[in-house]
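Q: Can someone sanity-check these two? First one:
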Amino acid sequence: MARLIFLFLFLFLFPAFSSTTTKLEATTAVSTLPAAVDSYQLHFPNPHLRRAYFALQTWKTTAIFSDPKNFTSSWVGPNVCSYTGIYCALLPSHPSITVVASVDLNSADIAGYLPPELALLSDITILHLNSNRFCGVLPDALRRLRLLHELDLSNNRFAGNFPSVVLSLPSLRYLDLRFNEFEGPIPSALFRLPLDAIFLNSNRLHASIPQTLGDSPASVVVLANNGLGGCIPSSIGKMEKTLSEIILLNDNLTGCIPPEVGKLRKVKVFDVSFNRLQGPIPASFAGLASAEQLDIGQNRLTGFVPGFVCGLPRLQNFTFSHNFFTGEAAECGARGRGVVRDGRGNCIAGIPNQRPPTQCTAADTREFDCSKAKCGGGKQNTTPLPQKPRPRNARRIPPSPPTPVGSPHRGFFTVTPPPPPVSELSPPTKSYAPPPPMASIPPSPPPSSGGHSKPSHFAPSPATVVSPPPAEHPAYHFPPPASLPGYHHPPPAEHSKHAPPPSEHLREPQPPQEMPLPSPPECAGQNLTLPPVVGVSYASPPPPTIPYY
């Protein structure tokens, strides 16, 4: 009889209890993750904005732990186009459909991580998150952002190996990962992407620069302040048609400067300072007809400073200090052309501020045979150096950015002259936009000649990286503000021929229960107590009004 009573209670009372428990769990889910429920109860003009609502609410409620400037306080309700930092536009393939086209949270000081649900923002072409406290790794799901044109994650706390997901973004043209904690080798496939600008400086990347460097069509490549080692790839000469600026400062490079550098007839900035390079200045440097800033200082270079370098037609700043040169041509001493020249700390007789005789012995100034540099396969030169190499500059908190330079283009960065041998880059104020036609880069005035100064190729310039959009990319059409309540004019972005077909764009998101949320990264537990980013403020400027995407 007792068993029958127990069976009766189990069969008739347990389902009711289970139903009550389920309702309680559902109520709890609504309170902790409103986006997962409300997105199916609210009205949206189209499935794109429904997906965007789900993605942004999931980000806000589960992956953002600190928002001291209240950037996301406006992220309430179904009108995602009114959210701070979220910009909408009309979809090119369906001009009557409004979509989220850009996300810009620069300098928001937000702590958190990037959840995979951000992949639901499949229409965005710009993702700017610089100067925050985002951590963890980039989710593989971001490969669904097939229209993404600009990715700026600089000055955050992302970690792990180089994020391979960026190799799967077919429309990407601007990549900025500087001032993070990425480590490991740079994938060779990176330089086969159609990127116009590559910023990887001030991470923990190591292993030598891939030989595929020369396959890149980029106009700007900055790999400074990493532990790369190895030699400068000879393939660099293949970049002669596109390369304008290359900065390999403080990368622990060895071997000689390859003569193929002389093929870079369009390069304006060439900086390989603070490395362990040896050998003479290549005679091919005579081909650097467009060079404005040339810095080979703080290396182990020897021989004679030739006159054809000092006489380059557009040269404004030539730094060859703290090497072991034993002479220079008369053209280098002439001051009529106004070239700022820094030759301190060498072994050149009759010039002030040179090394003491004890550091200019025959062994110190002996020219290095570049044929002995072991650069094949990324091997480092093992020739012993008389001078101990300086330790790597470990970056934790980036230095303050420079005061904006109110002059024509002077490059990407500016740094306070470092006391040798320590150097550090400052992140710039960046504006990367590809509105046609391509903006020309005006010549820059020489920096002040008073004392030693780091070449001015580190100064911010709002129009430095400019590339026209591919002809196949149709233009987004911007609806008038009155048509969308709280509408923000979107920053430019670019539509891609790689866009998914309309059927995929219009697909409804999966129910929330089929999209389980991942566990937060290891850094998530620390985000509430992380100090704010100090000394850096370089948010992208307001977007141009040209609707080029």
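And here is the second, same format, sequence then tokens:
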Amino acid sequence: MVCTVAVIGAGPSGLTSIKSCLDEGLEPTCFESSEDIGGLWRFKEHPDPGRANIYESVIINSSKEMMSYSDFPPPAHLPNNMHHSQLLSYLRLYAQTFDLFKHIYFQTTVVSVRQRPDFPVSGQWEVKTEKREGQRETQVFDAVMVCTGHFTQPHLPLNDFPGIEEFEGTYFHSWEYRSAEGLQGKRVVVVGIGNSGGDIAVDASRVAEQVYLSTRKGAWVVSRVGAGGLPGDLLGTSRLDRLVQKLFPSWITRMMEKKLNRTFDHRLYGLQPKHRFFAQIPVVNDDLPGRIISGRVLVKPNIREIKGSSVVFEDGSVVEKVDVVVFATGYNYDFPFLPSGLLANGGHRLCLYRHVFPLGLARPSLAVVGFICNLGAINPLAEMQARWATQVFKGLLTLPSEEAMLQDVKRDTSTLQNRFACLERHPLQVDHIPYMDSMAEELGVRPNLLGLLLREPDVGLRVLLGPCTPYQYRLRGPGQWDGARQAILTQWERVAQPFRTRMPPQPESRTRASSSLILILTLSGTVLLLTTFYTRHSLSSLPTGLLYKMYSLPEIIWGWK
């Protein structure tokens, strides 16, 4: 029976892993190499190598309701898209509320994790740690949860940029970027158009003489601000939206791309990518189009070579007198404390069953948590992984055979390669709702949609038509939380609260209440009919026009808030 668990890292994944252990009656001990919690989301003026870092201006891409833990809604007063310091405050409040700090040993680095000689029987691990002062200690644990993330090892492919070693200016990886201080009046080239590249280009363009944003493949750019000024990730992210996307993927993709190009033409702006929208995580940036239209950021193709202080691009254009080159070229991943070969690399990804459990272990007593990405927030995914892993540790859930897990990894890898524009440093992408639901199904916490619609239609409609917020996975089963229903019913109130800094007068509308009631009753009947129809037939037989209206409904009914 597993009792003691070593948790490596006290970032968002580590914190929820500690809590999941406590929820299952396990004894977690967390080792954090720095002096505080937060991981990636704790800004460091002078970060240490091997640790994640962010720049001073970072605003989180996911809204607070989508990135929250499933039994800990964010305070209503917090902005929907928080500054990194506010997210750190939320994580600190989470740790204080559930009394997690007493389980964390700060300034303690895990040096090695090795199987004990009797591992096939005990499943135990020897974990060697080192304090900042140099003292080393070895402890034995029944299980290990690795929560170190994948933004710690900067990828700097200098060989791809001939002449960089003789560059007369300064170059560095985006990991080292703190702020635009020191870039005043400079000519800056940013290489790479991921989220960091876009942010840094915008940030630097406010003080630099000129910023050039170099990209090999382009990117789809989305805003945090959606229809009606609501958080963009709360719209079009319902279970119904996901169902329609699954039934008509090409149509939904075209519709999404047309919507983005109505905001600004990606081809005109030089950003049009080769891949389709859902094939790769888009760049989330509210300001980049404005910096491009004002000429403060000029989009350029990939760099061919560097000559002195001049940068030559693949289209033959040359920018002279460049002062700074920032490489926003992503990260490598590494687990130097684990045994060599334990996390075997299978093509574009690690050989991890469900992105959590390594194959080849006699006992499933080591889990990797939070080593994943999706079109959405990581926190709920990491929390679900931690809840699932701790149930496996306790023996309440059993993993399939080694062969079955290997076949699952191969199928998942094939899907990854065929569906997503998979890069070597981005092998971790999953579909948010299907991935969450698959694990929730095993845990017994997947929401019973039909039951909710019949017994509690106010909650059921929000689960079906509203954003797929994490609270849905606390409505039933192990870890059920009595506050889940209320959290779902009040989520739009928390969205609206931070906007109420000035309350302008509203025109009177006598028909609003009755219209809303009619709409809700109509939707209730429609959903019940569709649910019944779905159980007997297939939604693929429904008319496309009706599905289009269904897909549009969530954006119509946000007046519920």
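A (reply): Looked at the second one. The chain is about 35% helix and 15% strand. The domain at 4-151+333-494 is CATH 3.50.50.60 (FAD/NAD(P)-binding domain).
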